[in-house]
Structures are given as structure tokens and as C-alpha cells.
Design goal:
The chain is an alpha+beta fold and 275 residues long. Helix 5 (113-129) runs antiparallel to helix 7 (143-166). Strands 1, 2, 3 and 4 form a four-stranded antiparallel beta sheet that branches. It is elongated and about 75 Å long. It contains 13 helices and four strands. The chain has helices at residues 16-22, 54-60, 70-75, 82-103, 113-129, 132-136, 143-166, 173-176, 182-192, 199-210, 223-234, 241-245, 251-273, and strands spanning 9-14, 26-33, 36-37, 50-53. The chain folds into two domains: 4-166, no CATH class; 173-269. The model is unreliable at 1-5 (pLDDT under 50). It starts with 8 loop residues before the first strand and ends with a helix.
């Protein structure tokens, strides 16, 4: 913490690069004295001290992000839906946690959404304790806002538990695949189909469906969930949902392309089974 005689104001900002690249929410504070800045946050955010982490940080930044913050909406006395911020943060965190597991070559079986959620809750309890400074060092005119943020942050873990218990189980792409080596197959599909979009992804799905035995079954009203699972797992633009799911497979027109994808799938399966 800075000595009071050296500064008379401060501004809090989320380190967006760290959040968007690593999935880590850190609120860093830039102190100032009159019109002079003590820490030059935008030149080197790592020099600015961390005053909040986790959901507290996500609710407490002022501006500079891709959408208006919870703290800013409170300041402007505008209507604010804290659950929309909770949902955005929760889904972002689980996405990054899942991606980190995928990148680790020593993990043979990825954690389920339930296990990732429990791990996320443990992390958040620890991060809330590490966010003490933002509640202790407060501008008097902003104290009511910070108190609302503190109450919201305290209620986050309860919201996650209730939200997750009500939500339908969210399956990852590997969990949809009907094969014992589902993790290996999903990884190879991601590698081999690294540029396909729309029709190409649709034909990949078709090849999985018609394989003998079938490797993928799409149940009633399950298409959207499978599209989302593939898009999340591939972690890139795979084309619009309509472009993938609504593409009408034409035996005469698409048979050559589908045959080529079947050969690629056969090669993947043989390489998996040979290990």
C-alpha cells in the first residue's frame, strides 16, 4: 500500500490481457497525485499493485473492457443484473480451466464440468480473502458502491452452486464420442480438422455418425449442445450454428468429400488403436 502523503487518488482497472489470454481476473490500482500518475498502468500493468482477484476483481473494474462494468453501472445508478456478470465470469473461468487441461500432455482424462466447478469454487474462496485491500482502502464517496460489490462477491459461490445444480449437465466434445479412447479421438479431430468450417464440420459429424460402429449420435434437440461442445473444444470459429447443423447433406454432391473425410477418420482410428 502507498504512503498516504504520496498520493491523493487512485483508479482501478482489470488487467484485460491477463484475463482474456490466461483467464485470470486481477484488479490493479494506479495511484495518482493531482494530475500526475505514480504507476503508469497502461505502460506496464505489472507495476501496479493488485487490490482484488477473482469475482471481486471482475465486478470492480472501472472501464477499458469490452462492456460496461458492474461498478460503473452502480456509480451511474443504472439498472444492473449481477447474475449476468456472475454467469459471464463463471463460463469464462470454466472455459479457460478446461483449455488448460487440454494443453497438458500429462493429463490422460480431463475433469468433468462438476469437478472443474468444485475446483473453481475453492479458488474463489481463496481469491476473495486475497482481495482485502479493495475493501479497506476506499474513497469515502464510493463506500456504498464498494459495500454492494463486497456483498455480491460474497454471494457468488452460493449462486454458482444453485446455478450449476439447476443447469443441465454440460458435456464436453469428448464426452459425446462413443469410444473408450474418446479423449485421444477428440484431440486428433481437433488437430486434423484445424481449418474446416460450416460444411467441413458438418461432414466430420456425418462421418462420425455413419462410422461402423457409430462414434456419435445426435439425439432430439441435441444439435445445439453438440455444436457448442465442438466449438468450445476446438477453441476457434467453426462457422455459424446454422451453417453446421442446417447444412443439407446431398449424397450426389457431397459423397466425394465425405469419402475423403471417412478415410481421414479411419487413419485417426487406426493410429489410436495401434498405441
Amino acid at each position: 500500500m502507498k504512503e498516504e502523503k504520496k498520493w491523493d487518488t487512485f483508479c482501478d482497472e482489470l488487467n484485460w490481457t491477463k484475463y482474456e489470454v490466461e483467464g485470470i481476473a486481477e484488479l490493479r490500482r494506479e495511484y495518482g497525485n493531482g494530475s500526475s500518475r505514480i504507476e503508469y498502468y497502461w505502460e506496464n500493468p505489472d507495476l501496479a499493485p493488485v487490490v482484488a482477484k477473482g469475482i471481486t476483481a471482475f465486478l470492480s473494474f472501472w472501464s477499458g473492457g469490452p462492456f460496461r462494468s458492474f461498478r460503473l453501472l452502480l456509480y451511474k445508478k443504472e439498472k444492473v443484473d449481477v447474475e449476468s456478470f456472475f454467469k459471464r465470469y463463471y463460463e469464462d473461468c470454466l472455459k479457460f480451466m478446461s483449455n488448460e487441461e487440454e494443453k497438458n500432455p500429462f493429463i490422460k482424462e480431463r475433469k468433468s464440468a462438476n469437478k472443474l466447478t468444485l475446483l473453481h469454487l475453492d479458488n474463489e474462496e481463496r481469491l476473495f480473502i486475497e482481495s482485502k485491500l479493495i475493501f479497506d482502502e476506499v474513497k469515502e464517496w464510493e463506500r456504498p458502491t464498494i459495500e454492494i460489490i463486497e456483498k455480491a462477491a460474497l454471494s457468488y459461490t452460493k449462486w454458482v452452486k444453485e446455478f450449476y445444480s439447476k443447469a443441465k449437465p454440460i458435456l464436453t466434445f469428448p464426452e459425446y464420442l462413443q469410444i473408450n479412447e474418446r479423449e485421444q479421438l477428440a484431440k486428433r479431430l481437433k488437430e486434423e480438422f484445424s481449418t474446416e468450417k460450416g460444411k467441413g464440420i458438418r461432414l466430420m459429424i456425418e462421418a462420425l455418425k455413419v462410422n461402423k460402429p457409430s462414434l456419435l449420435t445426435i439425439g432430439n434437440r441435441q444439435g445445439k449442445a453438440i455444436y457448442t461442445a465442438i466449438k468450445t473444444y476446438f477453441d476457434r470459429d467453426i462457422g455459424s450454428r446454422q451453417g453446421v447443423l442446417d447444412y443439407k447433406f446431398d449424397t450426389k454432391v457431397d459423397e466425394i468429400d465425405l469419402s475423403a473425410i471417412k478415410l481421414k477418420l479411419d487413419f485417426i482410428l487406426k493410429s489410436i488403436n495401434s498405441k
